[in-house]
Predict the structure.
Amino acid sequence: MKRPFHSIRWRLLLWHSLVSLGLVVAVWLLANRLSTRDRMERIDRDLHDHEKSFYRGVFAPKNSSNDKDGPPSLDDIRDRLRSLGNPAIDPPEFRDLFKSDPAGTYIVVWDSDGSSLFTSPNAPAGLTRPTKVRPERSERSVCDRGTLHELHSAHPSGIITVIGRDISTELGALYRFRILLAVGGASILLAAIAGGWWLAGRALKPIHTISQTASRIAAGKLEERIAIPDRDNELDQLAHVLNDTFDRLASGIERQKRFTADASHELRTPLTIILTETQRALRSERDPAQYRQFLENCQTAAQRMRGIVDSLLVLDRHDVGAESRAHRPCDLAEIARGVTDRLAPLAQERGSNLHRQLSPALVGGDPEWLETAVQNLLSNALSHPPAGTSVSVRCGHRGGESYVEVHDEGPGIPQEHLPRLFDRFYRVDRARTQTQGHTGLGLAIVQTIATAHHGRLEVTSNAGQGTTFCLTFPHLPS
Amino acid sequence: MRLLIIEDDPLLLHSLREGLQEERYATDTAMDGVDGLAMAREIDFDAIVLDGMLPGIDGWELLRQLRETKTTPVLMLTARDAVPDRIRGLDAGADDYLTKPFDFDELLARLRALIRRNHGQAKNYLELGDVTLDLATRTLSQTGSPVALTPREYALVEYLGLHRGVVISRTELYEHLFDENDDSLSNLLDVHVSNVRKKLGASFITTRRGHGYSIE
């Protein structure tokens, strides 16, 4: 991890942390707001209840003594309020309303002219008649002064009641609650970040394994594969795809390696011959006939090398350009006729009877390549079996396929050679064929051409009944 | 000295045989593993040149089977220079190896060294009294002045010289100086011995009647 903030793990963590932080802050704000409002509403309700019980206390004795129905008049209220504070008249429970407890609830009542009607003993000093409360609107307003929380209410008559109390205990509790909430939120956030880091690491671990395996493979350990646990998640599927790719690459490289080794092996022997022959020739004076022999041997070796190099180039072109060549309709019969005509002299020289039985067989392909394929098959049939063997070439179509087959009546190819017959540089009879300029690549070329044309090459051979090579391609309807 | 070449490429086989025969080796050839193994088991060659890739049994397998009975020095020719191939060859019992394409001179030098070492001879020349044999140039000199010998005569002296003090039977001498193509039924050997005696002195080669020849 050279650049931490570019790694997926870090970025996942960053986003995860931001979202978690946002959530925690939002929850904190909401909880704070709700609890503050709830607390304040409760205080307000307390104060309101207190005010109600105060007025009930103020007027209850009077009502009972006068036995008079209906609401008391304004003057009654003023008189009653003014006369409060007299322990002789006040009911005992009323006195308890205003203990001189600084945290307790206090009530101050002013008349419309600004004179004080009632002041509870525990009221804080310096309270003045609030001017904000407009008598005509008869509303209750909340006012906070320091740690004092007050309700101001105005009667239409102009009497103003201020009821309040010190709420520092509640504020303290609220403050503690906020701190607690913040600490809890922070812990949850930290836990979420740690969990996110762990989860991201766990989720990305397979990727780490994959990249490590891939770099080991890139370093040359081609047989390594990604270990896939038995789960079928997305990364395992990716690993399967990668393993398949590695398999194909490794077998391709292996094939290439073997081919290069085979090719260099094939080139080394003629090269050795040239070296040995020239060095022998130069060791001592010889007569012209001997020099001639040396040169002929060198020439044979060099021609063999040329054959190998040519065939390798043909194979390489076919390997690389298989898909890019333009395919066009061509008749296998025409191609086979051309090839048999060209090789007729060779058949004559070997004393072989060359039969042909050609009916039209249309295929889509490259005529030049198809010709090479047929020619390789025919020249094999004319040169591998003993001289004088009958060879026949047939073509036509059957079951939606066009075919061309070359049959010789020779002794047949031993069964053990058949599976490897199309391998590059594989020879049934190395000693004899090498001197005749066969490179061991002819059938490999034929097979490559067949594959490039979506066709196939098959061989059947039985001891004493000869050998048949059959090239089959998809039939092209005319 | 008699060599066996096992090589499946006819042209290379021909070239090696000609070249080695010109270097005064009696040379037998085999073109596949089965023939080669049979010949190597039957005849005591002084050295075997063995190609790795052979039809029938390959060179490594041939070596493994040969080593069950014979200790003939083997020089392997490999067309692959991959290290595992060389290690495989040496481990199977090869004494030396050469990678194709090789220089013919190097092949000769390695064969000489192989044969020399096989006879416990670390030096490149043999001193037999006043006669000195140079194994590298295959020349012979007596008291400092060169003596011209025919290839067969030289081979005879070299073989007896490498087995100095040992009586070598006529059969063994025939086996090591002549290959399958030579006519070994004649009294060619006696002719060579008497020619060497004429050139180097009658007492150079001792005859043990009924046993063979030796150089004391």
